[in-house]
Design a protein that fits this description.
Layout: E1 22-26, H1 37-51, E2 57-62, E3 66-71, H2 77-84, E4 92-99, H3 103-113, E5 121-128, H4 137-152, E6 155-156, E7 163-169, E8 174-177, E9 181-182, E10 193-198, H5 204-214, E11 217-225, H6 233-249, E12 251-258, H7 260-269, H8 275-293, E13 298-300, H9 313-320, E14 327-328, H10 336-346, H11 349-352, H12 374-381, H13 386-394, E15 398-403, E16 414-415
Parallel strand pairs: 2-16, 5-6, 5-7, 10-11, 10-13, 11-12, 13-14
Antiparallel strand pairs: 1-3, 1-4, 2-3, 4-8, 4-9, 7-8, 12-15
Helix pairs in contact: 3-4, 5-6, 5-10, 8-9, 8-13
Length: 416
Amino acid sequence: MVSQAAFHAKVPWICYSFSMHSALVRYHEIALKRGNRAYFVEHLKKNLSTALRGMGLKEIRNASSRLLLNFNQDVAPDEVAERLGRVFGIANFSLVERTENDMAVLGARVVEALQGQSFDSFRVETRRVDKRFPLTSNDVNRELGALVQAHSGARVDLTRPELTVSVEILPSSAFLSLERVPGPGGLPVGASGRLVSLISGGIDSPVSSYRMMQRGCRLIFVHFHSSPFLDRSSQEKAKALVDMLTRYQFVSRLYLVPFGEIQRRIVAAVLRPLRVVIYRRMMLRIASTIALKERARALVTGESLAQVASQTLPNIAVIEEAARLPVLRPLIGMDKQEIIDQAMNIGTFETSVLPDQDCCQLFVPKHPAVKATLRRAREAEAALDLEELASLGADHVEVERFHYPEPKEDRGLHVA
């Protein structure tokens, strides 16, 4: 879909001359689900009601591959755009005025809406969902276009207009808007199941988490830290990143796992080249335990093939063998610049590049193995009490909880 930059900056809304109490949300991928569409739509409705909590959302209604959101008060366009722009499953959305299915009324409302507007070019886009309406979409475009041109003197530009007047004619009403805002696309969070994401303080893991949320997954986060051997900066960074990502899934849990003592014991028993591989195998064991407790179906990592020594194909295969669940790697074929670009788009890059002391910096050899074998890894682990080490991490976690927006129910919300 389009860049997420609009989600983190003010959307340049048209200054409407009428009150806005409704929004039309359009979905695309969900519409392709056929027999399962209702399941995905219900998840989208639930997420919309959560995202707009505290904004006076009165009801959500089905409207022919769209959802009509009605508010019990005039809404702030910028804040609506900020929140809806993070709801996965939305192709695009508009703040709209609801009016009658009558050309005379619709024309009058278009002219009124344009009062005080200044633009040199425009186009009219009509979608006639109600085929009983006597005019075709092109007929409506021509009639309203002639009105707009007579009122403004602007020229018609069908390719790159300064202003687009959008009209949607549904069975019960017509809807008018002067702005269509792109959404993040994908599938509604929660529709595809639950995953555990291993999140560091770096650039990659927040992007991999975002990409799985976009595919409809709800994530529980796990961060491994080396306190008390290192300071708490990596933990604070992980919290900041999870707080940002929570704006896309609304509720998150972050497990903070102490890993320093585990690393110290591995250093005492394992030769230098294999230590990183053994560290990561222990991380997957502990993350698997947390995932099973959380009823998650898979783990997610930010690995990209051959990006660093631990992410060579032989090492990835050896490390994954220790997991008790499938390991998903949404970044596996991306290069570093592609990952950086997406981190900048979703707003996590600036936090990810802040200096910190994470567990990857502790007890790491200068020349780690790049072609580990399962036989050598198991031989190295024979000197360790793996069950005790796993318990050392899993039994001493701290759990942080995140919410967005802050829990506050809207009374009287109706979902139809």
